[in-house]
Amino acid sequence: MSDYIVKIIPTDFTYSVTKEQANRILKFLRSKVNADNIQALIHATPTFVDSGSSLETISCPHCGEQLDFNWWGKAMDAASKDNFKELSINMPCCGKESTLNDLHYDLLCGFACIEFDILNPSTDFDNDTLSNIEDLIGRPIHMVHAHI
Ligand SMILES: [Zn+2]
After folding, report:
1. What is the 96 CA–ligand 1 centroid distance (Å)?
2. What are residue 113's phi and psi, to 5 degrees?
3. Do residues 144 and 109 make contact, with C-beta atoms less than 8 angstroms apart?
4. 88 Cα: distance to centroid of ligand 1 (angstroms)
5. Same domain for 24 and 86?
6. Which of 24, 103, 104, 112 is spaced 20 to 30 Å from 70 by Cα?
7. Do 1 and 44 share a domain, yes or no?
8. Do residues 87 and 15 share a domain?
9. Using one digit for the tens of pLDDT, what is the confidence trace for 9-61?
10. What is the spatial distance between Cα 83 and Cα 102, in angstroms, rounded to a whole number?
């Protein structure tokens, strides 16, 4: 049987929380959500949090043009040399500025310094729980749904 992981990340990829904050958020999550495991991963530098399955399309947030995976791979390689601290890019399609964090990935993924991974949750996340998590984290959040 495959595993399903809900990864909660702040939309601001440079943002992180303290260990104490992370523990408070974990305690909250564990009181609200039934799951096989809930853990916090704190990364020293922004890390690409993916959805496990392969991406099918990546498109430009400005003009909607589908992007070439070779271009994306090269942009990711270049950004990785600086530990993903700098994600700004010039779009090859329309020449506008964006970041690797703002591209439209067909399966939502993103960069983050902090992630909360919830393994095989058997509880739905209601809006109250989600807004409480945003309050505790202190930033708007994304949820990455990973099937591995
Ligand atoms: Zn574009």
Report:
1. 6
2. -100, -15
3. yes
4. 14
5. no
6. 112
7. yes
8. no
9. 999 999 999 999 999 999 999 999 999 999 999 999 999 999 887 788 999 99
10. 17
Number of domains in the chain: 2
Shared domain check, 120 and 92? no
Say which residues have a Cβ less than 8 Å from residue 85's Cβ, sequence separation at least 6. Answer: 14, 45, 46
Identify whether residues 33 and 59 lie together within a single domain.
no
**77 CA to middle of ligand 1, Å?**
20
Report the separation in Å between the CA atom of 11 and the middle of ligand 1, taken as the mean of its atom positions.
Answer: 21
Q: What is the CATH number of the domain that holds 31?
A: 3.30.70.260
Note down the domain range covering 66: 55-106
Ligand 1 centroid to Cα of residue 90, in Å, is: 9
pLDDT in tens, 96-124: 999 999 999 988 899 999 999 999 999 98
12 three-state secondary structure:
coil
Confidence of residue 143 (pLDDT cuts 50, 70, 90): very high
Output the CA 32–ligand 1 centroid distance in Å.
41
